Amino acid sequence: MIRRLGNVFVLDTPNTTYAFGVIPSGQLEHLYYGERIVIDTEEEAVVLAEKRLSLPGNTVAYSSEHSNVSLEVLRLEMSGGGKGDVREPFIEVTHADGSYTSDFVFADAKITQGKEPFVTLPGSYEENNQVEELTITMKDHSYDLTVELHYFVFKNQDVITRSAKFINTSDEPVLLDRLMSAQLDFERADFEFTTFHGAWAREMKRHDMSANACKIVNESYCGCSSNRSNPFVMLSKKGTTEDHGDCYGLNLIYSGNHYEAVEVSAFYQTRIVTGINPRSFQFHIAPGEVFEAPEAVMTYSKSGFNGMSQNMHRFVRECIVRGEWKKKPRPVLLNSWEAAYFDINESKLLKLAKAGKEAGVELFVMDDGWFGTRDNDTQSLGDWYPNKKKLPNGLAGLASKVNKLGLEFGVWVEPEMVNVNSDLYRAHPEWVMEIPGKPHSESRTQRILDFSNPDLIEYMTEAMTKVFSDGNIAYVKWDMNRIFSDYYSPCLPPERQKEVAHRYMMGLYKMCDTLMSRFPHILFEGCASGGNRFDLGILCYFPQIWASDDSDAIYRVNGQTGYSYGYPMSTVSAHVSDCPNHQTLRKTPMASRFQVAAFGVLGYECNLCEMNSEDVKDIKEQIALYKEWRDVLQYGSFYRGRAYDNVYEWTVVSPDKKKAVGFEMQVLFNPNTHFETYTPKGLDEDKKYLFTNRQLQINIKDFGGLINQVIPFHIKPDSLLHNVAAKLVKLPGEKEYCIANGKTLMESGVHLKQGFGATGYAEDIRFTTDFASRMYFMEEVSNTMESEHIE
Ligand code: GLA
Q: What amino acid positions are annotated as catalytic residues?
């Protein structure tokens, strides 16, 4: 709910309050953001405001009329530069006279119902459009310019979003050098700033930094939101844990160069801004023109990181992801990439698809290599017509054969890129982002198409329309495999070259808008060399994203934990792949490969035709199990338990709390640690649950020569006999079984079966090697069921 109490604005969500007021000098003073509080009158808000009597030494007085006001010591809703506030600004404008001082003050406020879509960018929405909006108009009277600050309050979520519009209401052109989306000023200087970093194949590693002085910047200059630094960040009070403490989460609905700066001021206040990266950014805004900043998402929870994540997850599921696939069970897919790379043709693909079908897969995806002369990654990006040698019956022919097997069919594309060795480049070198006449810095021998060029956008939209209508295409993997260099658009004049990165994003979003409305049935999956563009902008179009090219379970358990802070698991695509893993060469047990991937949108990316029958049988059982629990795993509430202590613990709970799935992984075996607990979260305190596990089969070869201590004859380790015996004999893993009340389970944890400790094998020993993991199931039991179980 949004209320105006005189000069104070109060924005309430079910559990949070955000407040600010107009001060006599015209600026907006930030008053409060945090747990819901009661503010009934303007007078009551006085307690939240800074008391200003005189000017702190060595600061600047805002004006002679307001000589006690130093903008440097105020908490502000938006800050310009040059009038005394030396901290990170919200806006920077270069005026026609060359000055770059901004002086925006309050002019007007309006509260409205419903949320209109943005014109140039994607944004959040609410199905019943119950969103309330507060528009504050700020005017720079010295230069006759306008900024609108938009606040959107989501009544059913603990989320407030912000965005800003710059309107050139003057009669002279200006240069917009920066426009942030949100600015939050706090009165304290003891936050922890948490960001998520990485690189290709190791995305989303959590970093915590104490923000006690100076400035910390989390940004991307890759042209995309990037695997280097994700735009999702957290601010928390010291001592915050997964379940306790104050935590703010911020994200940006944007897929390009982003910027999140946390600055601690000389007066021990903390400012965070988030928005488009101002580096190499400058927009020419003519009189009458409008510039939209992306929408920033803010949430707060006093229940620690998990509480904040729950808010973000709900918001992304309900208010970001849209279209037919928003709540539909996502299919289990088999992707051809790691099975065959570029070496594909119709008969090979059909064999693979058939093996997939037999294992229970629902969707078969043909990855890279199917078009033009694409036999490797040096050629043909841009030539979006099937290679007749590989696909004699085209896409439609293959799709129909795959459909006949009883599978849906999907295809890989990379519409934003071109190889120099392609028909498209030869025909239209002017459609490419490169500096004419200058050497280009290549990446994966490909270049970026210039999405600031309307002709290119139109061409590529039609080329993709042709691909997506060529046969029964149910799924598209939309890839983007390099970062930007040589920023330049041949279609823009020299003075507009700093508009390129943002114009690219607007062009891309425009193409996505058209294609999404033309193909509402297709399930789109985003990808950018894995997670190089995992953000809320992409999720407004594509309901799921390939989170990393690295499907090694030991990396993934950390990466998926990283994603889970800001993104729900229904957006995280995760595959079981070959062993040794192609990215890490690590040998991870099949059980763990599946049990980690199962907590995202499950898929397979391996050559099922060449796998041993044991693994194939295992995969069949995995897929059946996943389908049985898919509604919980994909759309349940996800909680993190212990992490970063050699042990990872997750729980996902169905919306009605009747079912839950648990996960525990011990990364490296810790000798002589027999006793372990798994502690679920999010259960109904008053329900009773039957707790069981996914019982594993233990390979006797895991015991090596120790086997000779328990059998009456001798087996030479790794001999033929050892291998044959391992094939024929499997030892049953431990069975967990108990019935307990939800509160009991959450408070005490489940004390698991005793772990292996060099004491030999017994049927109920929890036998854990390096990289071992376990999957647990919790189901509500009725009183009758309970007595049956006891009998
Ligand atoms: C990227 C993707 C992979 C695969 C290849 C194909 O690396 O992340 O999953 O699609 O491209 O070239």
A: 479, 549
